[in-house]
């Protein structure tokens, strides 16, 4: 990828610095507002770039398709294209989300199935297993997610790790000695939300990023439903009926959210690949590139 970035150094004068908030920046004309990604190293010419709050891959005017392998996109630091490795990475990212969604919906469905139902009893016995599979799928997606600001990505991954460790610790130290599943223990002991909460905080961060970048209504609503239900359970402010209602909405929106990911072009989940290629360059080469861009903007 680094070598590809070196070949992409000649840039048009209308290049734009991408915003730092998300993993992708929406396709737009050269006159849109953009924010500087390299304030510490860019010169006065670079600082004349204007800011934008939208996300999405920087495109070359091609129609959105799932197969972008033949398209060439003009990024902030040069042209780039979708390679087979990019496609595999995006498919794995989306597969992780689908795995998390299916596991969660199956486990949560037991709350709506009456006691004594054969299917419901089977699901209740395996809820911890489904929780583990779902956490693994979320972890895979957080590993592969494209976010320009690395500390934000690392923070989401840290939350996931804290949630996994907290879940394992709660199960081994308090749930298992009581001969309860982790899920049952959290349901019966609201304070146990502190153990599993970071995992769902990481999920909330992911859906927030998706909602912000692509304007997905279901992702935006999930950003409030997930913490709302967990905090309502933790504080006791929600009765069982309200919690079941929010859980049902969460299940429905999570399915819609995961399913719609496969309707997006591959390039959307890649973002502006030239930004990641630029970030992989040594510091001296970055400075040289910024000087070149400064000259082209003058």
Automatic annotation (TrEMBL):
Residues 32-56 have a biased composition (Low complexity). Keywords: Membrane, Transmembrane, Transmembrane helix. Residues 32-70 are annotated as: Disordered. GO terms for cellular component: chloroplast. The chain crosses the membrane at residues 91-113, 129-148, 155-172, 192-208, 220-238, 244-262. It comes from the Eukaryota. This is Integral membrane protein. It comes from Zingiber officinale (Ginger).
């Amino acid at each position: 990828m680094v070598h590809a970035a070196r070949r992409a150094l000649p840039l048009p004068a209308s290049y734009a610095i991408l915003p730092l908030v998300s993993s992708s920046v929406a396709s737009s004309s050269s006159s849109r507002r953009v924010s500087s990604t390299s304030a510490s190293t860019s010169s006065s010419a670079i600082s004349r770039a204007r800011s934008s709050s939208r996300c999405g891959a920087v495109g070359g005017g091609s129609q959105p398709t799932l197969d972008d392998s033949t398209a060439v996109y003009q990024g902030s630091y040069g042209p780039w294209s979708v390679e087979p490795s990019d496609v595999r990475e995006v498919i794995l990212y989306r597969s992780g989300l689908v795995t998390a969604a299916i596991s969660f919906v199956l486990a949560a469905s037991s709350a709506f199935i009456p006691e004594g139902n054969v299917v419901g009893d089977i699901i209740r016995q395996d809820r911890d297993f489904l929780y583990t599979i779902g956490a693994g799928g979320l972890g895979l997606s957080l590993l592969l997610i494209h976010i320009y600001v690395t500390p934000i990505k690392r923070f989401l991954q840290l939350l996931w790790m804290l949630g996994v460790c907290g879940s394992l610790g709660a199960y081994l130290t308090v749930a298992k000695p009581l001969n309860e599943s982790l899920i049952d223990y959290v349901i019966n002991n609201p304070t146990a939300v502190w153990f599993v909460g970071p995992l769902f905080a990481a999920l909330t961060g992911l859906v927030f990023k998706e909602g912000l970048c692509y304007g997905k209504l279901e992702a935006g609503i999930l950003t409030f439903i997930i913490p709302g239900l967990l905090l309502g359970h933790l504080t006791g402010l929600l009765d069982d009926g309200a919690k079941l209602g929010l859980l049902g909405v969460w299940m429905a929106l999570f399915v819609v959210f995961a399913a719609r990911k496969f309707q997006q072009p591959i390039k959307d989940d890649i973002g502006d690949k030239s930004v990641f290629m630029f970030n992989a360059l040594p510091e001296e080469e970055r400075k040289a590139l910024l000087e070149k861009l400064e000259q082209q903007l003058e």
